[in-house]
Design a protein that fits this description.
alpha/beta; seven-stranded mixed beta sheet; single chain; binds pyridoxal-5'-phosphate
Length: 395
């Protein structure tokens, strides 16, 4: 390998370090939960996407173990060759029923689902209108399709309408609006009632990526569209967050759409099938989530308590109702220092900074889940107050 090339890579790495943007990974030696251990030391974990606390749920572990014994470890095939067990179809139908769609199609991750969804459905004659804060995987997925691209300011219905008018004036055949149900860096919901109304007025399709909502937002946890009492035409989502937290993504929608994706979606055709244990636990996770009004009540009670506690301590929060509660610190180095100090104090959080949020908008993104106790939250509030005072963030 040319030393010139490696020297160049080293200089990029040094720039990342010099900008205070270096990310390090701390090694957890317990299951994922509200309370975890790192190097044997207990930490309260406030940054997992484990909204319902199912990541270490005994029923999911038992379902995965049983099916691993009965059906083996891996499929060693893509779905269409010899990678489809009956369980895969059971999960696909279960997801579709839960979300109120005809059918769904599984992927290794929602990143792949979003990479898959646009290209087979939209051609050069079509338009895709995307929220400016959409997840990286939607942005990448849109790049892979030939449709004309339009972008609207985050959650801005007036701008969305302007883009719809432009796309219509440009002669678009079909228009697809793509949005996250919940914007994960801010914990803010897309205004799906207004988006749906505009989609209907301009005869556009609505695609919602509901990764940070399925399982706990809306009645029975059916997601952000259900929360607003509207329907998305196409949904994408993950098993890697509230629904057990392992891995797996999906697209749900009308039968014809799912049928075409099964024929044409590249991450489906050219990537391995999900392992049986993950599929079985995914089915069990939806069974639990659908009935989990108790877990959802605890999740949102924790969210209210945590938000009120941080506000009382003087922290600058982004407003919202979602279990994502971002503590704004603006400067990447301050966010890093705060996260490091909180870790010493027994609270596991992560500083978020460029490139996952814009420069100058660094933050600690805290997330509530149903397995956190009142004692855990009081402990974490005391730690935030101590660290915040030491760093001059609060009085
Ligand atoms: C987490 C997330 C993804 C990726 O999901 P994976 O299954 O982890 O690949 C996609 N979109 C959004 C909005 C997400 O929050």
């Amino acid at each position: 390998m040319s030393t010139d090339f490696l020297t160049h890579i080293e200089s990029v790495l040094n720039e990342i370090r010099a900008d205070g943007l270096w990310k390090t990974e701390r090694l957890i030696d317990s299951p994922q939960a509200g309370q975890i251990t790192v190097g044997g030391a207990t930490k309260i974990n406030l940054c997992a996407n484990n909204y319902l606390g199912l990541a270490d749920n005994p029923a999911l572990i038992a379902a995965a173990r049983k099916v691993m014994d009965e059906r083996g470890y891996g499929m060693a095939s893509v779905r269409f060759i010899c990678g489809t067990q009956d369980l895969h179809r059971v999960l696909e139908q279960r997801i579709a029923d839960y979300l109120g769609c005809d059918d769904s199609i599984l992927f290794a991750a929602c990143f792949d689902a979003n990479g898959a969804v646009f290209e087979p459905l939209l051609g050069a004659e079509d338009a895709v209108i995307s929220d400016a804060l959409n997840h990286a995987s939607i942005i990448d997925g849109i790049r892979l399709c030939k449709a004309k691209r339009y972008r609207y300011a985050n959650g801005d219905l007036a701008d969305l309408e302007a883009q719809l008018k432009t796309a219509r004036a440009d002669g678009a055949r079909h228009i697809l609006i793509a949005t996250d149900g919940v914007f994960s860096m801010d914990g803010v919901l897309a205004p799906l009632d207004g988006v749906r109304a505009l989609a209907d007025r301009y005869d556009a399709l609505l695609m919602v990526d509901d990764c940070h909502a399925t399982g706990f937002m809306g009645p029975q946890g059916r997601g952000t569209p259900a929360h607003f009492g509207v329907k998305a035409d196409i949904m994408t989502g993950t098993l890697g967050k509230a629904l057990g937290g392992a891995l797996g993504g999906y697209i749900a929608g009308p039968q014809a759409v799912i049928d075409l994706l099964r024929q044409r979606a590249r991450p489906y055709l050219f990537s391995n099938a999900l392992p049986p244990a993950v599929v079985a636990a995914g089915i069990a996770a939806i069974d639990i989530a659908e009935k989990a009004d108790d877990l959802r009540a605890r999740l949102f009670e924790n969210t209210r308590y945590w938000r009120a506690g941080l506000e009382a301590a003087g922290f600058d929060l982004l407003a919202g109702e979602h279990p994502i509660v971002p503590v704004m610190l603006y400067d990447a180095r301050v966010a890093q220092a705060m996260a490091a100090r909180l870790f010493e104090l027994g609270v596991f959080v992560s500083g978020f900074f460029f490139p996952v949020v814009p420069k100058g908008r660094a933050r600690i993104r805290t997330q509530m889940n149903a397995s956190l106790t009142r004692e855990n939250l009081d402990f974490a509030l005391a730690a935030f107050t101590t660290a915040g005072r030491e760093l001059g963030i609060v009085k």
